[in-house]
Amino acid sequence: MVALIKSMCLVGMLVLVVSVVEQVNGAGECGRSSTPDDEATKLAPCAMAARDPNADVSSSCCTQVKRIGKNPSCLCAAILSSTAKAAGFKPAIAITIPKRCNISDFPVGYKSYTVP
Description:
It is built from seven helices and no strands. It is mostly helical. The N and C termini lie far apart (about 60 Å). Helix 2 crosses helix 4. Keywords: Signal. One of its GO terms (biological process) is systemic acquired resistance. This is Bifunctional inhibitor/plant lipid transfer protein/seed storage helical domain-containing protein. Pfam families: Tryp_alpha_amyl.
C-alpha cells in the first residue's frame, strides 16, 4: 500500500513538472512558430507610418498589420520588440496604424501593454 501511494505521488509530481515545462517552453504572444521580432521584420513596409503619424500607410503595410493583428497581443509585442525599436518605430504612433488602415475588426481601444 505504501509503495502504491509513493508511486502515485511520483506520477503526480511528474505530471506537475511536465505541465510547468510545457508552459515555460510554450507559445508566446505570436504562437509557437514565430516571435515578436520575426513579426516585426514583416512590418518593414510600415516603417515610415510607425514614425510619422502623417505619413501615408502603404497597402503592403496594411496587409501585414491585418494579418498580424488577428492576434492583437502579437501585433503589440511586435511593435514593442527590439527589432521594431531598432527600425525607429514609435509605439504610440505605430499602434495607430490599424485605424489608419481602416481595419474595422481591430479591438476598439486596444492598448499595447504600456505604450510610452
